[in-house]
Amino acid sequence: MLGFLARRLALAALTVLAVVTITFALVHLAPGEPMLGNAERMRADSATIARQRARFGLDRPIATQFAFYLANLARGELGESFVRHRPVALVLGEALPNTLLLGAVALAASFLLGVAIGSVQAARRGTWVDGVLSIGSLACYSTPSFWLGLVLLLVFGQQLGWLPVAGMTDPAAPEHVGPLGRALDVLRHLLLPAATLALVNAGAIARFERGALVDALGAEFVRTARAKGLSPAAVLVKHAGRSALAPVLTLAGLSVPALLTGSVLVESVFGWPGMGRVTYEAIFARDYNVVTAAAMIAGILVALGSLLADLAVARADPRQRPDA
Amino acid sequence: AGGSDSPSAGTAGGTLVIVVPGDGDVLLPPVTTTATGALVSDRIFPRLAELTLALNTVDDAGYTPVLARRWEHLDATTLLFRLDPRARWQDGRPVTADDVVFTFEVYRDTLVNSPLRPNLEGIAAVTREDSLTVAFHFRRAYPEQLYDATYHLRVLPKHLLDSIPRGRLASSPFGRHPVGSGPFRFVRWRPNSDIVLAADSGYFLGRPRLDRLIWRITPDIATAVSMLITGEADAMEVIPQREEIERALRAPALRLVPYPSPFLAGILFNLRGPRGAGAHPVFGDRDTRRAVAMAVDRATIVSSVFGQYGEVPIGAASPMQWIAERGAGQLPYDPVRAARTLEERGWRDADGDGLRERGGVPLRFTLLVPTTSRPRQRAAVLAQAQLRTVGVDMRIQPVEFTLFERRSADGDFDALFFSRTLDPSPASLLQFWSSAGIGSNNAGGYGSPGFDSLVLAAIAAPSRAAASPLWRRALERLNDDAPAIFVYSPRNHAAMHRRFEHVTIRPDNWLATVAEWSVAAGLRLPRDRVGGDR
Amino acid sequence: MTGSATPATPATPPGREARVPLLELRDLRVTFPVAGGVARAVDGLDLLVEAGETVGLVGESGCGKSVTALAILRLVGPDGHIAHGSSVRLEGRDLLALPGKEMRAVRGNHVALVFQEPLSALNPVLRIGAQIAEAVRAHESVTRATARWRAIEMLTMVGLPEAERRARQYPHQLSGGMRQRVMIAMALVCRPKLLIADEPTTALDVTIQAEILELLAELQRKLGMAVLLITHNLGLVAETTQRVAVMYGGQIVEEAATEALFARAAHPYTEGLLAAVPRLDEPRERLRVIPGQVPPATSWPAGCRFHPRCPYAWERCRTEAPPLLEAAPGHRARCWLVEEPARRTRADAPPGEKP
Amino acid sequence: MTGPLLDVRELATHFTRRAGLFGTRTETVRAVNGVSFTIGRHDTLGLVGESGCGKTTLARTILRLVERTAGEVRFDGQDLFALGPAALRRMRRRMQIVFQDPYASLNPRMTIGRAVREGLEIHELARGDAADRRVVELLDEVGLGADAVTRYPHEFSGGQRQRAVVARALAVDPDFIACDEPVSALDVSVAAQVLNLLADLQARRGLSYLFVSHDLAVVRHVAPRVAVMYLGRFVEVGPAAEIYERPKHPYTQALLSAVPVPDPKTRRARIILAGDPPSPVHPPPGCPFQPRCHHPLKDATCTAVRPELRELAADHRVACHKAD
Amino acid sequence: MSPWRLAWRRLRVNRAAVAGGVLAGLIALATIAAPLLAPADPLAQPDPVGLQNLPPGAGHLLGTDGFSRDVLSRTLYGARVSLAVGLLAALLAVLVGGGVGFAAGLSRPAVDRLLMRGVDVALALPRVFLLLAVFALWEGVPLAAVILLIAGTGWFESSRLVRAHVRSLRDSDFVAAARALGAGRAGVARHLLPHVGATLIVCATLDIGNIILLEAGLSYLGLGVQPPTPTWGNMILEGKDLLFAAPWIALAPGLALLFTVVAFNLLGDGLRDALDPRRAR
Ligand SMILES: Nc1ncnc2c1ncn2[C@@H]1O[C@H](COP(=O)(O)OP(=O)(O)OP(=O)(O)O)[C@@H](O)[C@H]1O
Ligand SMILES: Nc1ncnc2c1ncn2[C@@H]1O[C@H](COP(=O)(O)OP(=O)(O)OP(=O)(O)O)[C@@H](O)[C@H]1O
Ligand SMILES: [Mg+2]
Ligand SMILES: [Mg+2]
Q1: Does the predicted interface ipTM exceed a cut of 0.85?
Q2: Which of A63, B349, D165, E225 is most buried by its number of CB atoms within 10 A?
Q3: Which residues on B lie below 8 Å from E243 (Cβ)?
Q4: Is E3-37+61-280 CATH 1.10.510.10?
Q5: Which distant-in-sequence residues (6+ apart) come within 8 Å of D268 by Cβ?
């Protein structure tokens, strides 16, 4: 177990190093000047730019810069944002929990939804219910998230007015609502963006779950369960469902990249103060340090996702456990 | 500050939620580089004096006192300010002459690297006369001395900032928890989410009538407008797209407040050849430039992109500027004459592909458009089709914003779709179009001694009346030489919830008068009753 | 093993005696829609099992043994279809007419199944104790703890050492033999009246097979249930059953008391099968073969289904499908030779080594 | 041309495989653990044993489809493991193998004709029309029609496929064929056909077989000499008549007693072994069979000392301390 | 009958797959025939004031956009880029991935491990961030580079699949038989190629949909293929501003995108079922 973790961590470290190297090279070799402050109001002359470049060490050869970057990274320093004039750790540190909240809720929701839809389909396979849900989940999966987000925003936010259209909290709300009130506030704001991400992802999971369940339902142990006199629901959930769990968990773990992708688009649609948005803006501002660190965090999240998936699979499938 | 003497309910109260597209960077006026940063910090840090709504930058009469109670010209190059003794920092310390001197030093310091530093070139020094009197010493005598002394500087607390190394000002904690002397106090800032200010009941010119100002950061325009419609937000500086304006208009709780735009956009030609050498093969020639300008139907572009919410500018001035008088105008849209001119200059369609060429060289150029601007992209696509009808092949190259800026600064382009937010003072024309500006802000390399002398004379003119005809001639000169096609200025409309009263909008700084805005007691929403000063 | 040579129960038609047979299949037909048409996997099968007896059902792969077993419990769905007119009676009750809920009360409770491949027949992700307890709780309203206790008791009964610890293990942690014991425990935990064992030892080694058969015989003695033993191994049938039914092409082709069948096979297919098996006890030079192969279930030949492979076939066999004919008391065969025994001479060569 | 065709000495094949959670532990499977025997020309050695005792591994190692861990294999006097790639390829013309699962041993995407032809082409035994004719001849020899040439495996039954597999092996005109349970997956009636075919071919071509099976009756039918394997080792080798009539090793005795005989009149005392075969990863100390042994004289020697094969009768060798 | 013919038979009776195939075929056809089918020049702006944002109607079946261009024509022409990117990038990705996976599957364990570790690392790269960065930071990335980049960051999955497939087949009896007959590495490879081919076809078909979505997402962010060339992504981007005023502008390419992705997914699922070697027995 420990050995396994060590190996996975080493792999993750390698991944992160690769991500950092690639991103660093990408942003530094790209044409164009980092924004060194937002140019909306700035018309800096070349002397100013040179001063700023010197300040961030951008005047040195790229290899030297990279060496310095790695040295700083080893000390846990991610540098300072060119645009926001703040330590990158703070900039991303504030945004990351929001993205994690959104992503985790979306992941959980898409998992539950996908498994539920897939189960209904498998139970009713070949019927019109299956057909309709099939088309539905395929359509969800094939819908661009930005598009879906806009539609949800329009319908539930604006037309029906059930949910707030943007942000993570209501900043105008009274301060004395207490923790529960604040949590509810966040929840209300979370619903639409999470639903957007979840629906798209749930489409993929439902398709997968259906396949895994149909396979499982054809397995002999399902026949055994039916021969025992179990009800169809018990057979589906307890027997087929349990054994289809592992592959679906893997898929869920592997959908972290998709969620990250989605978050870039969905966070700007819903004004969610998350990492996707920060990264997106940083890329356009050529805020090198933020971009590199954000890519690194994304890499860590992706690696973490697949690690968690593996661990979850080990929980779900006793054949994969150490005492096997 | 922050006394408990809250004004009687009924007069004070209200929360204004403003939706903005981007987050702030630092809430410190000399170093902030974002629109939001400026908009918020301006509420915390007042100037010595404010322009009135007329935005008359030439005469001293166009100003009202703020931190400075009075001012007088000691001589042609010295301006004396007497500070209001009631003025207090929000930590209770009085605002003194030392603060003003300190402020000037900060703005001028190359380590601070304030984007406003170039605007202070006319001021040689600022000195403390006594604790409440400061003197501004100018290099030259000119009419806009008061403008330069007040407009760019927002007074900073020396006692709180003195210990911070100048180079670290932008990243200092103060910039995220500012303490000022203005009508509003800083309350909270959640990155990428919201910034909250509260009315300062100790403000020496009287507590604002609103309790709180909240900026909500929402990058997506459609979402932002939806927030206005659903009431999640109350106000937005300008709705940039016509369709969104029309959507907002349908919301009964909203009203749109029109105001002149400080904004100007157009196609800038590069008159210089590749790498700044020689003349540009197409745009080096004045007649060709004029022909291209006449081939672009600006009115159609404006109606297509903005409908009634935009206008064709008269020239290099934005509608907000007082020099933008009706009557002046650009070259007319006349594709027939344009075609004839091109024909005369040797640009003919010899191979019958519908595009002109001369000596085998096609009449082709590339227009840079930043990816961030939808209206500019739309206008460019429309212009492209129009130019094609007279045989001009304009290629559109969208480039990412910083790259756009850099290629603009380097003169590395044929043409680019610029857009500028102009200051109230017309003096900025000098940097953009004069020979002196070549190498910095005059990216197209237009240079004309006649134009230069006209502008210098206009700047030196002692009054608006005297300056006005000179400015007009300068603008006409520019239009005749066609170094650019001035395509559009939007007609700005601020969106505003109807419950707000006494709303006036100063085009250069739309929240300048927000301390006077209010909500009638009967119209208040729950969030208006939360109270600001805690 | 079951040395007590109880007299073979003849397949007496019901009604002659007041006693109702435990299981009675009449004209069972099961079809599967497949790419090339309709597979008639079981096609008019009649079978009786009396309480407490052991009946063997033998036949080669694909002849419909497993489908028969599943059809008894109505488990051929969703692909399979039990044709109208079929009847499956358990103690006189028509199982095919039962509503779903009552059918579930029969499964595992009155009739239990043991499958061939214990590794795939057990759910890999559930503990074996839980899988057995689940069977108890499906039929009896007992507490979790009771069900668990019953599971452990049953595991002890099937000879699983350290039952308590084993109950907490997963199928893959057991050996093949132990897994099959678990399957048997699961089938028997509700004390069914009939156990259908579908090739319970095919996947096991001979030494383990011997253990399992011993166990089954012992449990049958203890619990008194009837066993329908499905296998293709004639040796097994000979050693463990009292009565045998031989299947070919979805039908019973011969049915007799075990000793009678092995002593004198009436159907040429049975005869061929017996001759084709290499024998440990009496080695032979050359095996006799049944030529050709089983035709697909979608296209049974007309007439006798075995006639294309039958060494004795003549005109009548090609056109007329024989019914089950009584060759001797309690010995029936689906072959015209019963009526025309003189034709039992091969055209090409004399019959192979006679059994 | 003296000496046996195949001479196997102290052959051992061990597999190292990853085990535990995601393979962090390694364990060694001693699949074949020191086996010696010879097979003469026109000779058959039958090999029986329980599932997992190493029969398949032994057969594959002899053909060098699996690399050995120790020991040596001489084919017609040549050390098989000393051959270079080219020599090995030449050698493969003379040794062939027939597998247990007729469904897995033919490439589903290759016609039977191509499968049979492959060997001809590799060894350049025939080309063009001559190859075509040879393929038809071979198919005819195993009782398949010429039309099989253009058909695919899925169009054939198990027995027919096994014939095609035999035809493929015969194509290179080998001297020796390792038959790894060639009829275990087949029905009784079909198995008889294949067994007869193998016998005919041996008679006609003078082939030698290693005939692996877990079915003692089948082995008795085809092999004049039989080896009984247990946990990677031979426990008893000798003439078939000897072994079947007078088995010496307690394991052989148990095995024989367990085989059901299709004759209700014979009733034999069955020896029921205790427990399951131990795992080849952790073979027990001493005699490998000792934990399950029912021999009345079993004692401490059995649990401490591994018995070597002893010759108890002419050519009849047994690895048991207590056998006599 | 060959396994390919069999697969074709199975595919033909799979209604969903046939629907997907027909739809994908029609879309591809419409794309090729865009100049014939399109009622107008996709770039022509007949009257950007008077005819802009016309709702669907007789003159313009799917309405006009903000520039008075015909939305139907633009959607048809937009398919060209979207499909070209999808098809070419998918093809390329699958070829590279298939090649690497095949090589890894047949290589010595050390080489195999090295390749697969590399793929593991690459799989954890945040693909969209990288693509975003490249397209945002380099101006005017040509279409060929867009395709190369999308393919270059998208072959890892298929290489894993192919490698696993090769590994499982490598231990199969028929490969052992070939080796016993004296086949070398090339001979073994020849046995495995047709199997891997089936896997690759399925991979590619399912990839097409994903890549079209990806390209649309990038275009939506203002990257990738640039205006006025219509692509579905940048049409949605243009239409997004008018989502409330003139929904058809974004709806037409949005639905085209949806249908295309659905079509290729249905076809891919059908192909997977039809080509599944487990069914090939
Ligand atoms: N789900 C199914 N779909 C289609 N055909 C089926 C299905 N199940 C069984 N069959 C067909 O029914 C026939 C009988 O199958 P069955 O499994 O009962 O044979 P069996 O006698 O048990 O053989 P085995 O000894 O191989 O288990 C076969 O021809 C088989 O192809
Ligand atoms: N490639 C391999 N890697 C690891 N272990 C293996 C490998 N091949 C076989 N083994 C192990 O070696 C042992 C012997 O296997 P082998 O297949 O030779 O047995 P067998 O006697 O042929 O069994 P069966 O009768 O089931 O075919 C088993 O424990 C098996 O798990
Ligand atoms: Mg069966
Ligand atoms: Mg084997």
Answers
A1: no
A2: D165
A3: 222
A4: no
A5: D257, D261
